[in-house]
Amino acid sequence: MGFGDLKSPAGLRVLNDYLADKSYIEGYVPSQADIAVFEAIAAPPPAELFHALRWYNHIKSYEKQKASLPGVKKALAKYGPADVEDTTGAATDSKDDDDIDLFGSDDEEESEEAKKLREERLAQYESKKSKKPAVVAKSSILLDVKPWDDETDMAKLEECVRSIQADGLVWGSSKLVPVGYGIKKLQIQCVVEDDKVGTDMLEERITAFEDYVQSMDVAAFNKI
Amino acid sequence: DAEELTLLERWLGLPKGNKYGVQGERKVPVLQTNNGPGLTGLMTIAAHLVKQAKKDQLLGSTAEEKAVVQQWLEYRVTRVDGGSSKEDTRVILKDLNMHLEDKVYLAGNVFTLADILMYYGLHHIMVDLTVQEKEKYLNVSRWFNHIQHYPGVRQHLSNVVFIKNRLYTNVH
């Protein structure tokens, strides 16, 4: 969840898309969720992001009442579309239903001070939690890359494969394994981040080297 | 619609007891009053009820807001209730969609009687829209979905569903 970096145009675009069919960040009334996101934005969104601008102006009109809006301010990563990668560094939770109606049943009798103190403590806790390094899902994949024949330059083939660069992809060790008739296949290890790199992508890019590569198979796939 | 006025009454928290009738071919609602011929006209009765419930802010607070509320109430009665062809509907939705692009409520940042009556007036139209149409008039859909969730407004009217994930993202 989260909108990405709300101080960047990309983040604002995510916010804009999210607000196209919503009046508020959460539920159907203004809440601390809106305040949390509002405070993360540096300036009014540009005119072309008109959903975000509409929401911004609307929330601004609640400026004076912001402390009394329902709900509890959470870390930015907790709001927003469920499928956006969280770049604020908080640990990735299981996917929340992003339609939760979050009117905290705030105790009317709670004094202003107690409430402020609680919210402060919560904010501190959230920021501490968000400093923990993200746990990223990785896998170790063993690929078999087969050449056309025994005349194929395996060193070149290996070079081609290793030239494939991607965010979340790290090449490991490799060896040549004979398969018969003088043909050797390249067995190469790699470690990938599951969210970023998939075997289809790898297959596509490896088999793109048509001059050298006849085919590619996944020999082994282990989660780390 | 007399029924609509009953819904409004309930939302305003007014005690029951007002008697409504209809007048003429166009079924203009009439509120029977104790002394006199009765109040005629949806907008008029609605505004009267709001004042009875002492919720005048629903008619707008500033002069400008009040004017905007009146504008949309008039629109509701003349355009939404008056016209009923496919073409009329299209124009209405287009007008509203443009107006709501930068506003959360019809009057801007505050919920008013205009939103309530426009919601009731549009309900039968929204109920029949296709998914594609709902996305085309995205701002109207957003506003309608918001109003139908506003505490106490929807009552027994059916909930119009707006799916969250946009299917036709190249229509802006």
Automatic annotation (TrEMBL), chain A:
<dbReference type="InterPro" id="IPR049720">
    <property type="entry name" value="EF1B_bsu/dsu"/>
</dbReference>
<keyword id="KW-0251">Elongation factor</keyword>
<keyword id="KW-0648">Protein biosynthesis</keyword>
<dbReference type="InterPro" id="IPR036282">
    <property type="entry name" value="Glutathione-S-Trfase_C_sf"/>
</dbReference>
<dbReference type="Pfam" id="PF00736">
    <property type="entry name" value="EF1_GNE"/>
</dbReference>
<protein>
    <recommendedName>
        <fullName>Elongation factor 1-beta</fullName>
    </recommendedName>
</protein>
<dbReference type="GO" id="GO:0003746">
    <property type="term" value="F:translation elongation factor activity"/>
</dbReference>
<dbReference type="InterPro" id="IPR036219">
    <property type="entry name" value="eEF-1beta-like_sf"/>
</dbReference>
<comment type="similarity">
    <text>Belongs to the EF-1-beta/EF-1-delta family.</text>
</comment>
<dbReference type="GO" id="GO:0005085">
    <property type="term" value="F:guanyl-nucleotide exchange factor activity"/>
</dbReference>
<comment type="subunit">
    <text>EF-1 is composed of 4 subunits: alpha, beta (alpha subunit of the eEF1B subcomplex), delta (beta subunit of the eEF1B subcomplex), and gamma (gamma subunit of the eEF1B subcomplex). Interacts with elongation factor EEF1A1.</text>
</comment>
<dbReference type="GO" id="GO:0005853">
    <property type="term" value="C:eukaryotic translation elongation factor 1 complex"/>
</dbReference>
<dbReference type="InterPro" id="IPR001326">
    <property type="entry name" value="Transl_elong_EF1B_B/D_CS"/>
</dbReference>
<dbReference type="InterPro" id="IPR018940">
    <property type="entry name" value="EF-1_beta_acid_region_euk"/>
</dbReference>
<dbReference type="Pfam" id="PF10587">
    <property type="entry name" value="EF-1_beta_acid"/>
</dbReference>
<comment type="function">
    <text>Catalytic subunit of the guanine nucleotide exchange factor (GEF) (eEF1B subcomplex) of the eukaryotic elongation factor 1 complex (eEF1). Stimulates the exchange of GDP for GTP on elongation factor 1A (eEF1A), probably by displacing GDP from the nucleotide binding pocket in eEF1A.</text>
</comment>
<feature type="compositionally biased region" description="Acidic residues">
    <location>
        <begin position="95"/>
        <end position="112"/>
    </location>
</feature>
<feature type="domain" description="Elongation factor 1 beta central acidic region eukaryote">
    <location>
        <begin position="102"/>
        <end position="129"/>
    </location>
</feature>
<dbReference type="GO" id="GO:0005829">
    <property type="term" value="C:cytosol"/>
</dbReference>
<feature type="region of interest" description="Disordered">
    <location>
        <begin position="84"/>
        <end position="114"/>
    </location>
</feature>
<dbReference type="InterPro" id="IPR014038">
    <property type="entry name" value="EF1B_bsu/dsu_GNE"/>
</dbReference>
<feature type="domain" description="Translation elongation factor EF1B beta/delta subunit guanine nucleotide exchange">
    <location>
        <begin position="138"/>
        <end position="224"/>
    </location>
</feature>
UniProtKB/TrEMBL annotation, chain B:
<keyword id="KW-0963">Cytoplasm</keyword>
<keyword id="KW-0007">Acetylation</keyword>
<comment type="function">
    <text>Positive modulator of ATM response to DNA damage.</text>
</comment>
<keyword id="KW-0648">Protein biosynthesis</keyword>
<dbReference type="GO" id="GO:0005634">
    <property type="term" value="C:nucleus"/>
</dbReference>
<dbReference type="GO" id="GO:0017101">
    <property type="term" value="C:aminoacyl-tRNA synthetase multienzyme complex"/>
</dbReference>
<comment type="subunit">
    <text>Part of a multisubunit complex that groups tRNA ligases for Arg (RARS1), Asp (DARS1), Gln (QARS1), Ile (IARS1), Leu (LARS1), Lys (KARS1), Met (MARS1) the bifunctional ligase for Glu and Pro (EPRS1) and the auxiliary subunits AIMP1/p43, AIMP2/p38 and EEF1E1/p18. Can interact simultaneously with MARS1 and EPRS1. Forms a linear complex that contains MARS1, EEF1E1, EPRS1 and AIMP2 that is at the core of the multisubunit complex. Interacts with ATM and ATR.</text>
</comment>
<protein>
    <recommendedName>
        <fullName>Eukaryotic translation elongation factor 1 epsilon-1</fullName>
    </recommendedName>
</protein>
<dbReference type="InterPro" id="IPR036282">
    <property type="entry name" value="Glutathione-S-Trfase_C_sf"/>
</dbReference>
<dbReference type="InterPro" id="IPR053836">
    <property type="entry name" value="Arc1-like_N"/>
</dbReference>
<dbReference type="GO" id="GO:0043517">
    <property type="term" value="P:positive regulation of DNA damage response, signal transduction by p53 class mediator"/>
</dbReference>
<dbReference type="InterPro" id="IPR042450">
    <property type="entry name" value="EEF1E1"/>
</dbReference>
<dbReference type="Pfam" id="PF21972">
    <property type="entry name" value="Arc1p_N_like"/>
</dbReference>
<feature type="domain" description="GST C-terminal">
    <location>
        <begin position="48"/>
        <end position="171"/>
    </location>
</feature>
<dbReference type="GO" id="GO:0005737">
    <property type="term" value="C:cytoplasm"/>
</dbReference>
<dbReference type="GO" id="GO:0006412">
    <property type="term" value="P:translation"/>
</dbReference>
<dbReference type="InterPro" id="IPR010987">
    <property type="entry name" value="Glutathione-S-Trfase_C-like"/>
</dbReference>
<keyword id="KW-0539">Nucleus</keyword>
<keyword id="KW-0175">Coiled coil</keyword>
<dbReference type="InterPro" id="IPR053837">
    <property type="entry name" value="AIMP3/p18_C"/>
</dbReference>
